[in-house]
Every structure is written in structure tokens, then in C-alpha cells.
Design a protein that fits this description.
- The complex is a heterodimer of chains A (about 110) and B (about 110).
- With about 110 residues, chain A is mainly beta.
- Chain A is built from no helices and eleven strands.
- In chain A, strands 2, 4, 5, 6, 9, 10 and 11 form a seven-stranded mixed sheet that branches. In chain A, strands 1-3-8-7 form a four-stranded antiparallel sheet, with no helix packed on it.
- In chain A, a hairpin with a 2-residue loop joins strand 5 and strand 6.
- In chain B, about 0% of the residues lie in helices and about 55% in strands.
- Chain B is built from no helices and eleven strands.
- The model of chain B has no long low-confidence stretch (mean pLDDT about 90).
- The chains are: A mainly beta (about 110), B mainly beta (about 110).
- The interface between A and B is medium-sized, with 24 and 26 residues.
Chain lengths: ~110, ~110
């Protein structure tokens, strides 16, 4: 079964450093999402992306965050200057159509900011 | 924003028992998601439903749009069903800008 792939599985970085989290969505999917889960807390929506544009974003997704689909297969989340509170598990998800479909999630990237 | 409440927070069952997890939300929606997460694992989407009932194997999800309530049932529970089950409701007008519940930690003992 096709799957969403995320790399790396773990990322450790120093506060203030830039990180890029990578995702390869399922090949015929058109809609892409990032969610995150801080340890012990609920999963939170970050951003949705379609047709090379952000379609929705949450209050969390401030100017420190950006997303990109650089080459037609990868979907990346960049955090420009990481803060301690950015430490979380980041999940990428994708779907083919925008409605009435289950999301396909990647296995996540655990980001630790020291 | 849609407030999503789940109950119970923790549930321990014996293998074979029938399990019910409940979810209520505050704002009318077009569809609700049920998700599963094994300890240390990724998120698996179990159901997206907008009305009535859906069944997949031993899992059944129901939704009552008027009452803003959904339930996830597991029949003949098995230790491998042990996981966190979470419902998520979208912001009005969106299907995937989701507000997640806190999750229900299910432990099924052999």
C-alpha cells in the first residue's frame, strides 16, 4: 500500500537553528498537511497546501514557519529559528481529493530543540 | 473553533469485550475523523464520516450530526487494539483544519 514517508525520524537541533522536515506524500495526492503534537498534548493543525499555495494555516504557523513543494515530490516544513517550544512530533499528511477522504499520515519526525 | 471532547480518557478492558469511545463537538461540521495512534507510532486514519455508520472489520463508527456526537465501537477487542483513539472535527467550511480531542488511551488485557 502506498504510504507517506517522512525524514528524518528524529531531529535534534540547537535553539535558533533552522530545521527542514521532509515529507514525500503519496504520488497522486494533491492536498498536503502538517500537524504537530507536543508531548502529552493534543495533535494540532499547522497548515494545508494545495496547488503550490498555502490554503489554510493555524495561529501557530507564524512567520518562523514556511512550507514548500520544491520538486513535485517532496513537501517540506521549515522552521527558521527554532525555539524550545517547537519541540514536538511533526506529522505530514496527504489526500487525493479535498473532501470525504481519510487522511494518510506519515510516521512523524520527532523534533527536539535544545 | 470547534471544541472536541472525548470520553473516557482512559479505558482498560479484557480481551473480547465490546468497547465504546465517545466524542462530542460544539460546532456543526460536515464530517468527523477517528484516528488511531499506537505508542511511539504514527497516526492512522480509521474513519471519516459525515452521517450514519461506517464499519471496517471489528471497528464501527457512528455519528449523529444533529446531536453533535460520534462513537467508536470495537467488537471482540484484542490486545493489539491497545492504542490512543482520537476524534477530530474540522473548522466550519474546512474538512482538514482539524481540532483534535485529547484522545482515549485504550488498554486491552489478554
Amino acid at each position: 500500500e502506498p504510504e507517506v514517508t517522512q525524514t528524518p525520524s528524529h531531529q535534534v537541533t540547537q535553539m535558533g537553528q533552522e530545521v527542514i522536515l521532509r515529507c514525500v506524500p503519496i504520488s497522486n495526492h494533491l492536498y498536503f498537511y502538517w500537524y504537530r503534537q507536543i508531548l502529552g498534548q493534543k495533535v494540532e493543525f499547522l497548515v494545508s497546501f494545495y496547488n503550490n499555495e498555502i490554503s489554510e494555516k493555524s495561529e501557530i504557523f507564524d512567520d518562523q514557519f514556511s512550507v514548500e513543494r520544491p520538486d513535485g515530490s517532496n513537501f517540506t516544513l521549515k522552521i527558521r529559528s527554532t525555539k524550545l517550544e517547537d519541540s514536538a512530533m511533526y506529522f505530514c499528511a496527504s489526500i487525493q481529493q479535498a473532501y470525504n477522504e481519510k487522511l494518510f499520515f506519515g510516521s512523524g519526525t520527532q523534533l527536539s530543540v535544545l | 473553533k470547534n471544541e472536541v471532547e472525548q470520553s473516557p480518557q482512559n479505558l482498560t478492558a479484557q480481551e473480547g469485550e465490546f468497547i465504546t469511545i465517545n466524542c462530542s463537538y460544539s460546532v456543526g461540521i460536515s464530517a468527523l475523523h477517528w484516528l488511531q495512534q499506537h505508542p511511539g507510532g504514527g497516526i492512522v486514519s480509521l474513519f471519516m464520516l459525515s452521517s450514519g455508520k461506517k464499519k471496517h472489520g471489528r471497528l464501527i463508527a457512528t455519528i449523529n450530526i444533529q446531536e453533535k456526537h460520534s462513537s467508536l465501537h470495537i467488537t471482540a477487542s484484542h490486545p493489539r487494539d491497545s492504542a490512543v483513539y482520537t476524534c477530530a472535527a474540522p473548522k466550519l467550511g474546512s474538512n482538514y483544519k482539524l481540532t483534535f480531542g485529547k484522545g482515549t488511551l485504550l488498554t486491552v488485557n489478554p
